[in-house]
What does this fold into?
Amino acid sequence: MNKPPLKKNPTFGIAVFIVVAILVVIATLFYNAIREKHEFERQNAQAPSISSEAAAAAAAVKPASGLAQ
It folds into this structure.
């Protein structure tokens, strides 16, 4: 009548560990990709601002020279 104690099957625990490890790797890849994309956009956003300031200055000079004629 006494049942022998059941041994736990470690397969389920190892499967959960592998799934969690894969999800952590995927999350890390996404995090790094998004962070580097924002860094890239931040670095490239500074260059057009200089040319846009120059374009604004040139536009401000043109009407003044037009009025002088």
